[in-house]
Write a structure and sequence with these properties.
It contains 3 helices and 8 strands, in the order βββαααβββββ. With 128 residues, it is α/β, with parallel strands linked by helices. A 3-stranded mixed sheet has the order 2-4-3. A hairpin with a 5-residue loop joins strand 6 and strand 7. The radius of gyration is 16 Å and the shape is elongated. The chain starts with a strand and ends with a strand.
Length: 128
């Protein structure tokens, strides 16, 4: 399971201004959306992003590559993009680091409460 801070704020995107009436669509999984958000929007490197998602760096790289290819396919072939659940884990117990603004959750089995990136204990609970 890949941790996702919050599901995408959309159910899908459709190409605008195309004359083709494509009925096929591309499914963008929640974890793929999260990978794009962390790497390209939040400007994290793959190691940082993989720690947030609770996966290895290699797994993050595969999820990120899959997301990029799907978005490229949708754009080039003028296809709709739909967001679908996939293999994601949504958690209500999310925290934010006051030092580096990282969002993360703390697994039940973990008794340490610190930021996984900068290791500070200066964190607070957030509600999505």
């Amino acid at each position: 399971m890949r941790k996702v801070v919050a599901p995408p704020g959309f159910r899908g995107y459709k190409p605008y201004g195309t004359r083709q009436g494509r009925t096929n669509h591309v499914d963008l999984l929640y974890e793929e959306y999260e990978a794009i958000k962390l790497a390209d929007y939040d400007i994290m490197n793959q190691l940082e992003a993989s720690q947030i998602m609770g996966v290895s760096r290699a797994t993050f790289a595969r999820v990120y590559e899959s997301a990029r290819r799907k978005i490229a396919k949708a754009m080039v072939e003028t296809r709709e993009i739909r967001s679908v659940f996939g293999d994601a884990s949504l958690d209500n117990s999310w925290f934010m680091c006051d030092a580096c603004d990282t969002r993360f959750n703390i697994p039940d089995k973990n008794t340490e409460h610190h930021c996984p990136l900068c290791k500070t204990e200066n964190i607070h609970s957030i509600k999505e």
